[in-house]
Amino acid sequence: MGKERLKKYWEQLIERCESSNLSKAEYCRQNQLVYHQYLYWQKRIQTAPQAEFLPIRVSQSTQTTGFEQSTLNIDYGIIEYPSGIRLHIQSEVLCHMVPRLVAIK
Length: 105
Fold this sequence. Notes:
Helices cover 44% and strands 20% of the residues. By secondary structure, the protein is an alpha+beta fold. The protein has two domains: 3-46; 57-101, no CATH class. Helix 1 (3-19) crosses helix 3. The longest helix is centred in the first third of the chain and has 17 residues, at 3-19.
């Protein structure tokens, strides 16, 4: 059985167990599953990184900032990620494109 197929198999078993009124141990006994394997897969599936988009905030900005004192850059927009990282957009054209690029459909 391939890795993805094996993962799907255990995902289905775990879902069935969670929707049953049985304890994990009892579910494993009734379905002839090895209990520690069940726990292994449950932990592996629950801690697997989920592929999802996080919301970002796009705001207009007219402030001037500079990385060096001799160079000033105009920020036309700033994208602030949930982690606190800020992406300064220094192109008016790109600033107008960002909302369309990140729109969720």
